[in-house]
Design goal:
Helix content: 25-40%
Largest sheet: 3 strands, parallel
Structural class: alpha/beta
Strand content: 15-25%
Distance between the termini: 27 Å
Number of strands: 12
Radius of gyration: 19 Å
Low-confidence stretches: none
Length: 300
């Protein structure tokens, strides 16, 4: 049996009743940290083929793809001018300038390149960006819930993955109102309406500005940290099916943590999982942000 038929049958068995009420929503995403390597096409293809097979079986579905432009710009690929891009380290990818004219941002440029590869390969999901999702307000109620249950999220991360957080740690990054960076800020003290933050962190050489303020964390002014973000997106988008690289689905991995958060904090069930293997180069994973591995564009 073709692998997609096997997985589609499992989905029918587990989600059949839900599929009668609404089209099943299949989701995938990619952080646009540079030229997207060919390994990232694996998720595109797996989710795309599952969508096609479910359609053949008469199971209505929608395939949505998130172009993640809200993660931070954490490293400068070797093919870019470090002197030009160093000042942008720590900013959301949507706020980093494009390497070529004609695009709104770094994320817009590399997202367009990756979407062209999707189309060439025959996959046509509907697209949205992480920034749009947050700015739309669809994440606001989930952000509030996550902040109200920050202690539970800290507990889950410790119990499931062994990650220990400070007692005032909040699962959110604020975009600094002064310098526009997101990775240099540290949020604390949620009062029910606003969070306090200070721009005093300097990961991977990013320069903080020292701003101290309170801000409402809604409407795109802030972003949940990765594992809480993943769980919240499942609820906000209404995801039924979403796989990921096998490292996420191991015990204590990101998927394991997100599964606990979505159940215990957001009161929902995680999507049907499809763990998959990696494409390796020299025995190591490829990296878009570091420019390692053949690009999807080159391979296509």
């Amino acid at each position: 049996m073709f692998w997609a038929d096997r997985i589609a049958k499992e989905i029918e068995e587990k989600l059949g009743e839900r599929a009668q009420a609404k089209p099943l929503l299949i989701r995938d995403e990619k952080t646009l940290s540079g030229r997207v390597h060919i390994g990232s096409m694996r998720g595109v293809a797996i989710h795309g083929v599952i969508a096609e097979v479910l359609t053949e079986y008469g199971v209505a579905n929608e395939y949505r793809y998130e172009l993640n432009d809200f993660d931070d710009f954490d490293s400068i690929p070797g093919y870019l001018d470090e002197t030009v891009y160093r000042e942008h380290l720590g900013k959301p990818l949507y706020a980093v300038p494009s390497p070529e004219l004609g695009y709104d941002s770094y994320a817009d440029y590399y997202g367009d390149e990756f979407m062209r590869v999707h189309k060439k390969a025959g996959f046509t999901p509907s697209y949205y960006t992480a920034r749009e999702l947050y700015a739309s307000g669809k994440m606001d109620a989930l952000i509030k819930t996550a902040l109200e249950h920050a202690a539970d999220i800290r507990r889950i991360q410790k119990e499931v993955s062994g990650s220990q957080k400070e007692d005032d740690w909040l699962p959110i990054s604020v975009v600094c109102e002064e310098c526009g960076k997101i990775k240099t800020t540290r949020a604390f003290d949620f009062d029910g309406e606003t969070v306090a933050y200070v721009c005093d962190q300097s990961p991977y050489g990013a320069t903080p500005c020292g701003k101290e303020a309170r801000i409402s964390p809604y409407g795109g002014t802030a972003k949940l940290f990765w594992k809480a973000d993943w769980a919240a997106k499942w609820v906000a988008v209404g995801v039924d099916i979403e796989g990921a690289g096998k490292d996420h689905s191991t015990k204590g991995g990101s998927r394991d943590v997100a599964n606990h958060i979505v159940r215990e904090v957001f009161g929902s069930e995680p999507p049907f999982d499809i763990p998959y293997e990696f494409f390796l180069v020299g025995g190591k994973k490829m990296s878009s942000s570091k420019g390692k591995g053949s690009t999807a564009k080159e391979m296509s």
